[in-house]
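Weekly sync notes, structure subgroup
Attendees: PM, AL, DS (notes)

Item 1: joint prediction request from the bench team. They want all two components modeled as one assembly rather than separately. Inputs as received:
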Amino acid sequence: MGESIVVTSGKGGVGKTTSTANLSTALANMGKTVVAIDADIGLRNLDLILGLENRIVYNLVDVIRGRCRPKQALIRDKKNKNLYLLPSSQVEDKTAVSPDEMKKLCEEFKSEFDFVIIDCPAGIEQGFKNAIAGADRAIVVTTPDVSAVRDADRVIGLLQHNDIPPGLVLNRLSIKMVEAGEMMSRDDILEILAIDLLGIVPEDSEIVISGNQGSPAVLKAESQAGQAYKRIARRILGEYVEIPTFEQKRGLLSKIFGRT
Amino acid sequence: MLSTIFRAIRPKTTSASTAKSRLQIVVTRERTGVAEGAIQEMKKELHAVIAKYFVVDIEQLEVDIIRKNGKSALTLQTPVQKSSS
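Output from the run, pasted for the record:
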């Protein structure tokens, strides 16, 4: 029986879709069969980030409404045969499916795939309730800023209330800013949120480039964020992987004369 | 060189530490489900009690719920100058 993980945050724009795309790709690359579900009905994005936007025929709502069989809606990645996408609908809205229907769908996929990764929409209303309904565990994504952390805390409360264990992914950390005292550190954020840290993804311009190209950053060896997602995927599989400190290497001159 | 000197005399409060303090207060308040105006009401009542023993300015009385390492605590701070008796 496979495992279902919902990727959520509360706050929008902190990296749920990016994390879903990269973790799904990484797990698939490590030999696991993965279905990535875009549960953001009405505002789909996972298809774009995975570069599969031109192959959509059926979507999540079609499957739940019985207009097609689940396999007909799944888009198999040509470069990575272990990876499948169930895209969302761009025309319907979040009332088009119910939590029970989502739960049933996830159970069905779990019986056939190693992992079901659910990209949750922003917010805590119907879309969120749908997305978490079929999840065994959750990844809470946050960036190191006050709004995102506050929203993450609210979401963690809701997840715990629903008996879904959360793990934290701290996204877009800039060590330079942390060292300058202008960004909260991992320890600061863990003190506030008090859940297990699954991993840290550093700020990386490769993420924008990857989105432009429709090719997730995990596929690029030079991307720090991509490598971070790879480590997180390994931790999801139960491996112990140390979280790097991301310290910047500084030359002698910059050490004498202060920060660059 | 100059930046090293300036860094030594710069105040220790960073924006990150401000963010952390603010978040601890806000998050704990929201987690414990304290009603919106409750802390203000409680502050007034606490001030009345303290004023029986000390001269205290309500404007300088700080009451809040903070959170550290998974535990919540109610904190109260106020400068005291002399007893009111």
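Discussion: Chain A touches chain B through 21 residues (CB under 8 Å).
Action: AL to compare against the crosslinking data before next sync.
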